[in-house]
Amino acid sequence: MSRATLQKRPEEVQAMFDDVAPRYDIVNDILSLGQDRRWRKVVVDAVGAQPGESVLDLAAGTGTSSEPYADAGIHVVACDFSAGMLEVGRRRRPDIEFVEGDATNLPFEDATFDAVTISFGLRNVSDPHRALREMARVTKPGGRLVVCEFSHPSNSVFRTVYTEYLMKALPPIARKVSSNPESYVYLAESIRAWPAQNELAGWINTANWQDCRYRNLTGGIVAVHHAVKPHDGAGSTTEELTDAASPNALPESGPQRARAASEYLRRHASRRPH
Ligand SMILES: C[S@@+](CC[C@H](N)C(=O)[O-])C[C@H]1O[C@@H](n2cnc3c(N)ncnc32)[C@H](O)[C@@H]1O
């Protein structure tokens, strides 16, 4: 049984997902208490794919995150570097195009996709900055990025309870239901070490994306970040960040909050919410 460390060496991450592949989806459902279905729906809405568009679902694993697009008649490419996860995916959904590829060196031409999305994958990539730049490279100018990842609850009491769940309750449950319980120790550690919502938005804005906004789900256990690929190819680091759903992402008080709130209203008056 293999388990990755926080160094996230690609061969260790690959081997770990090869191991968990056969029971990956059922264990996910159990450990997230069924919340993952709701999170996935929010991601699909944020991507907002229209018929005729082409979507890349990166780190797609067994294709669970790709299915809703295929079901809606959207052309989706499910890309992952774990042969084990891809094998389960191809068996489950022979109608979906699965492609073996590394997020840090994508096997696609520039400007191929209208939207790129990655669910619970970026945290596992050895060089997430490079992966974000690669995602921008393969996206058409004006195209969208949606990143769904575990994050940090904004309420301190809830954060403490959740951290206890992650570090103490989750590993024994994983021992009962998973084929590779050690990998769930990695899951807990990698979630704790992952940057908070605003920091991740900063990473995205400096990786050739702009206008990054995020939305907290289940109190911030998960965050969904949305950004746009600029038409001139330049990223933006100047956008003030706002959260489409939760006022928790705004500064607590003062002129900064007022400015952020008016910026939020301006954006939402002119844009489709995600
Ligand atoms: C937790 S699974 C998520 C699968 C799917 N997106 C979902 O929502 O269920 C993470 C996936 O990321 C993949 N992954 C990690 N690093 C990768 C990389 N550098 N390139 C491609 N896939 C990667 C793993 O193989 C694994 O299938």
TrEMBL record:
Methyltransferase found in the keyword field: yes
GO molecular function, one term: demethylmenaquinone methyltransferase activity
Broad enzyme group: transferase
Gene giving rise to this polypeptide: menG
Key word Transferase present: yes
Protein name: Demethylmenaquinone methyltransferase
Pathway: Quinol/quinone metabolism; menaquinone biosynthesis; menaquinol from 1,4-dihydroxy-2-naphthoate: step 2/2
Upper lineage: Bacteria, Bacillati, Actinomycetota, Actinomycetes, Micrococcales
Listed EC numbers: 2.1.1.163
Provenance organism: Zhihengliuella flava
